[in-house]
Specification:
By secondary structure, this protein is mostly helical. The protein has 15 helices and no strands. The longest helix is centred in the first third of the chain and has 19 residues. The chain is flat and about 75 Å long.
């Protein structure tokens, strides 16, 4: 068994070398000194390249966040201690918001906007509006969204529209929220918009429409692996339960 592992290691390194067009001297080393040269090849040729891989960087960032969730917050506060700037206050606010500490983030978003010269930054305004929504201050969040300029990019506009829909729903303006949800679900990635749309449809008695939306969520979920689904596990769990409930009631599209 160890002998087969050594051969497999040799072959893997040589295949990697050939695909990358690396130094052919590695082939000689891998053949005559398979274990030592394979270890050396990994550290010299493979490991540095892993840091440039987007998927590896994402996985590493998630691992760091899981092991030390307040690492970015500490770094942001350290930067703010060195220089009290709008950008550093914004960084601390973002770190707090990422940890779900929206109430602490609100004053920092306000201060960042106050310290920024010229017209208010739309992204920062939207972040403040989201933090206000998360802390139950939906009326102020909506007023801020009404004042905010329309973002240039479609993805930014969609995120702003989703936040507006959530805020309107929270304020009881459900027909307006439904209209916005119906539009934004046609473009936004992820399932938050679809699940919120379906939940509001069910709340308003539109079970058949909700069924269609949730069946789309189910189809998308089945095309993903476990790791991809983990990012929105709560949404998929809710969608599965809601879909089962509609089917149990005999609702059909």
């Amino acid at each position: 068994m160890p002998y087969l592992l050594v051969i497999a290691l040799q072959v893997a390194c040589i295949v990697h070398l050939m695909r990358r067009g690396g130094n052919p001297l590695w082939v000689t080393a891998l053949i005559f000194l398979p274990v030592v040269s394979a270890i050396a090849y990994f550290f010299v040729e493979i490991l540095p390249g892993l840091g440039q891989n987007r998927h590896v960087r994402t996985a590493r960032a998630k691992a760091v966040a899981a092991l030390d969730p307040e690492r970015e917050l500490r770094a942001a506060r350290s930067a703010l201690d060195l220089a009290d700037t709008a950008a550093n206050r914004l960084r601390v606010a973002d770190a707090l918001a990422a940890l779900g500490r929206h109430e602490e983030a609100v004053p920092l978003y306000r201060e960042s906007l106050r310290m920024t010269a010229g017209d208010p930054d739309t992204r920062t305004q939207d972040k403040l509006a989201n933090a206000l929504y998360e802390t139950g201050q939906a009326a102020e969040a909506l007023a801020l969204l009404d004042e905010s300029a329309e973002p240039l990019g479609q993805s930014e506009r969609d995120r702003q529209q989703l936040l507006r829909a959530k805020t309107l729903e929270h304020l009881g303006r459900k027909p307006e929220a439904l209209e916005l949800y119906a539009d934004v679900v046609t473009r936004m990635p992820g399932e938050e918009a679809r699940c919120r749309y379906a939940a509001l449809l069910i709340d308003q008695g539109w079970d058949r429409k909700a069924l269609v939306v949730l069946e789309e969520v189910e189809k998308r979920m089945k095309r993903m692996d476990r790791q991809q689904r983990a990012a929105e596990a709560d949404m998929y769990r809710w969608a599965t339960e809601a879909l089962a409930g509609l089917r149990a009631k005999g609702v059909t599209a």
